[in-house]
Amino acid sequence: MELYKFNKDSGKKISKFNSDFIMSRVIQTDKVTHIGCMHLDENGIVGYHQAIVPQLLLIMSGEGYVRGKKEEFIKVQTGDAVFWEKDEWHETKTSDGLTAIVIESEELNPSFFMPLKK
Fold first, then answer.
1. Cα dist. 71→41, 67, 79 in Å?
2. Considering the domain boundaries, does residue 36 fall inside one?
3. Domain extent at residue 106
4. 22, 29, 62, 64: which has the highest count of C-beta atoms within 10 A?
């Protein structure tokens, strides 16, 4: 399991075309990619299971806890991204609720675009 950041501080200012915004790049793929939005309510859980393909979880709002093969949970919050390799065991849970974008593809390499969370 790897933890990344996609918050405003990790983005790049865009001014092309008379624009004025910050873009935090996340991923680029050439292969088929599934992108979904996951809504976990209060005490929600995505049970412990193996990733079928590499998976990237982008926390959009709220906070919760994730774990890989180890039983140690790590806190995640808005602006954090969690990456699991294919076949990696993992789990996500929350006390208060969270919303996340899930990106699944055979070809994911978030380290090209996002800094690791320290």
1. 22, 7, 23
2. yes
3. 2-112
4. 64
According to the model, what pLDDT value does residue 116 have? 87
* Burial class of residue 36, CB neighbours in 10 A (0-12, 13-18, 19+): exposed
What would the two tokens of residue 62 be? 């709220």
Q: Is residue 118 part of a domain?
A: no
Average pLDDT, the chain: 91
pLDDT tens across 25-72, in order?
Answer: 888 888 899 998 899 999 999 999 999 999 999 999 999 999 999 989
Euclidean distance between CA atoms 91 and 40, whole angstroms: 13
Query: Does some domain include residue 40?
Result: yes
CATH number of the domain to which 34 belongs:
2.60.120.10
Any idea what DSSP says for residue 53? S
